[in-house]
Structure formats: structure tokens, C-alpha cells
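F.,

This is the one I mentioned.
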């Protein structure tokens, strides 16, 4: 499979009391997208936290232009009649498009088709601190997580192209949420450089998602 150069990332909250209906609808919704040219994978996740969006849909794309392809646009037009009534009942529908960073780096190498858990981290660094933000990730944070924390398996980073989220998204694929309880994780998140970064980033949010289904 070619490297995914872009990502379509969607937070959703199902209508209250309609989770089973939502799952049935979204399985069909995701499968249709996965069948299109340029869609490399489709995954559905559920938020394990008691806060934040309940559902995450993830689509690896060859590049962002896939979302302007005739096939994708024609499918969206066909779906308007059948999907619109249900989609208007969603209490959240937050769609974002990202371009991938760090392509080809060893920490981006897949370790499984569909990771059982993902941690999503969004941040907005101050404009004059963007370079420091990237260097912290590349020189300190990624090496410490990947090389020292048991169960930390992959890190993907993105810059937002479209949507209302923060400018940068980091995805951490892990074996279980138990990674947060390890002394190695606490050491990786207790450095002076990390404290400096967290002092200047805004719109920071960390969520943990569990895999429902992969395509």
C-alpha cells in the first residue's frame, strides 16, 4: 500500500439512544468510501473517555485531491437523499482534512492493519514557536515515547488543511491505555522542553479511541 499523504478525520456524536442505528449506518457509509480510488483504509473508533466526541472515523488517503475526485463527488451527491435525514440528527459532525508530516520516518511504519487503540493529540503552537514545536517532537518527544515506553508502537503527525480543529494533530498508536500508567511515559512527559511547549500551545486536547472496525 502506498504511503498515505493525507487524512480525512471525522468526529461524530450519534443521536441520543440511536447508537445501534448509527453503527449500521456508518458501517455502510465507511465501506462505500473505502471502495473509491485513492482511499487506502477506513477505520471506525469509539472514544473510551467520558468526555469529548463519541465516534471517530479515519480515512487514509493517497493525497488530499482524492476528496475532489469525480468518483467521490458523485458518491456524495447520490448520498444526499438517503443520508441527509440521518446526518441532520447527529449532535456532532466535525470533519477535518490533514496532510501527513514525517513521511518515510521509521516511527510512521505500520505495525498492524488496524491499531487497537489510538491517542489523538491536537495543538495550536504560537506562530513564532512552530519550529520549536516540531523540533521538540522530532528530537525529544517521539524518540522518548517510541524507544522507552512499552506498548508505544507508532506515531503519525499531520497539519490541518481544512476544518475547525487545531493546526496540528499527532496520532499515537498503542497496545492499550495502560501505557499512561508506566514510569517511562511519566518520564517522557516530564521534561523541561515538554513543559516549555505546553506553556505556549493552545487548543490542546488528548483523547483515547478504541477500534470498532477496520476496512
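My design for it:
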Amino acid at each position: 500500500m502506498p504511503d498515505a499523504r493525507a487524512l480525512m478525520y471525522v468526529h461524530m456524536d450519534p443521536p441520543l439512544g440511536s447508537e445501534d442505528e448509527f453503527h449500521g449506518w456508518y458501517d455502510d457509509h465507511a465501506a462505500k468510501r473505502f471502495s473509491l480510488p485513492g482511499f487506502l483504509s477506513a477505520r471506525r473508533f469509539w472514544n473510551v473517555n467520558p468526555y469529548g466526541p463519541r465516534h471517530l472515523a479515519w480515512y487514509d488517503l493517497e493525497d488530499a485531491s482524492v476528496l475532489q475526485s469525480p468518483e467521490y463527488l458523485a458518491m456524495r451527491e447520490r448520498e444526499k437523499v438517503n443520508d441527509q435525514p440521518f446526518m441532520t440528527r447527529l449532535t456532532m459532525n466535525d470533519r477535518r482534512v490533514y496532510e501527513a508530516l514525517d513521511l518515510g520516518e521509521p516511527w510512521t511504519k505500520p505495525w498492524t492493519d488496524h491499531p487497537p487503540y489510538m491517542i489523538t493529540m491536537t495543538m495550536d503552537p504560537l506562530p513564532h514557536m512552530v519550529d520549536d514545536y516540531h523540533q521538540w517532537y522530532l528530537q525529544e518527544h517521539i524518540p522518548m515515547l517510541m524507544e522507552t515506553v512499552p506498548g508505544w508502537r507508532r506515531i503519525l503527525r499531520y497539519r490541518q488543511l481544512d476544518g475547525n480543529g487545531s493546526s496540528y494533530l499527532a496520532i499515537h498508536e498503542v497496545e492499550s491505555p495502560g501505557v499512561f500508567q508506566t514510569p517511562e511515559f511519566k518520564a517522557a512527559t516530564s521534561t523541561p522542553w515538554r513543559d516549555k511547549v505546553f506553556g505556549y500551545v493552545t487548543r490542546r486536547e488528548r483523547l483515547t479511541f478504541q477500534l470498532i472496525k477496520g476496512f
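The beta strands are 6-13, 39-47, 55-61, 92-101, 117-125, 152-162, 168-174, 201-214.

Talk soon.
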